[in-house]
Amino acid sequence: MPAFLVFYQFKTMSKEEVERAKKEWDNIKKSLPAGVELAGEYDHAWGSEYNGFLLFHASNTDTFLNWWPNFKDNIRWYVTKTHTIVAKKR
Asked: For the CA atoms of the chain, what is the radius of gyration?
């Protein structure tokens, strides 16, 4: 089962934008496709330029990679940068 560690950096947002982003994020989490699991959400990534990171598990790499472009399109307005590390469990 592959794991995907996704670091993210937010743009500077108004209070209204923060609320909109939170609502959209909640909807994204509720609509993850079969085979993609959000295993962890971390608010800080001290020692890096990122605001936090997400840990996803997927049934296989293709399932995650087929979902990824749509996910990126949905968060692009408030996430300025991501960095993804892919790992495979032994």
From this structure: 13
Could you list the pLDDT tens digit for every one of the 90 residues in the chain?
899 999 999 999 999 999 999 999 999 999 999 999 999 999 999 999 999 999 999 999 999 999 999 999 999 999 999 999 999 988
Counting Cβ atoms within 10 Å, is residue 53 exposed (0-12), middle (13-18) or buried (19+)?
buried
Neighbours of 31 (CB within 10 A): 8
Nearest to 62 by CA among 36, 31, 29, 30: 36
What is the spatial distance between Cα 63 and Cα 67, in angstroms, rounded to a whole number? 6
Burial (CB count <10 Å: 0-12, 13-18, 19+), residue 47: exposed
